Protein 1
Amino acid sequence: MLGLIVSLIVVGLLAGALARLLVPGRQHMSIPATILLGIVGSFVGGFAGYLLFHKDSSQGFFQPSGIIGSVIGAIIVLLIWERVGTRRGAPVNR
């Protein structure tokens, strides 16, 4: 159980950091927020991969396609987060 948690944090950090590097602009996020971004992106990427290809984790969790899916999912989550954050913080024109 502890190994799963540690591996989830490591994959989350890698996927979140790669997503932040690939998305242009500056993101004001801490390291825990980057880990959370990667973990959520991993679930989004895994779910999207299952919907598109109808494959699951029967061959194991650590596969190159799973890491790539995690990064793609983290990019999607980051873009959505930036879009929602800019709308919420935008000044109102009167």
Note: Helices lie at 2-22, 31-53, 64-88.
Protein 2
Amino acid sequence: MVVDDDPNDLILIQRAFRAIGVTEPIHTISGGLEAIAYMMGEGKYADRDTFAYPTFITTDLKMPGADGFAVLEHLKNNPEWAVIPTVVLTSSRDLDDIKKSYMLGASSYHVKPLSPVDLRQQLRVLHDYWVTCEVPQVDRTGRQLTTNSVGKLGERFPQP
């Protein structure tokens, strides 16, 4: 899922992902409020066959209505969803924006490159990294699947 209020950036990011070989569905979302509605499965996003819960999120920060911080905060307030890799991809180099993003659970923070070639390279690195990571399995709604941790190190942590 790509969250950005600039339609041109949405197109550029989607094209860059396609150019590096990403074939999975890419849902472009035009702002934080819409992203939260998507994650909640509300309104037009209720059909999870069409709008599967995202397995990877990039979000801009500076958006009207609900900004990228609201997206991060929403994920952090829903711990079952907080495991989804969420990358801030923004034009802001502000140190407070960087710090707050990580405090709200961002997986990483990147400044948008100015050229399409550099954007493709940056997204290739991010994609190649995240496809090698193991993340908890989730159902169609984004809820983590229950596992049996009895006798394992993980049994110290109660499951919801």
Note: The mean pLDDT is 89.
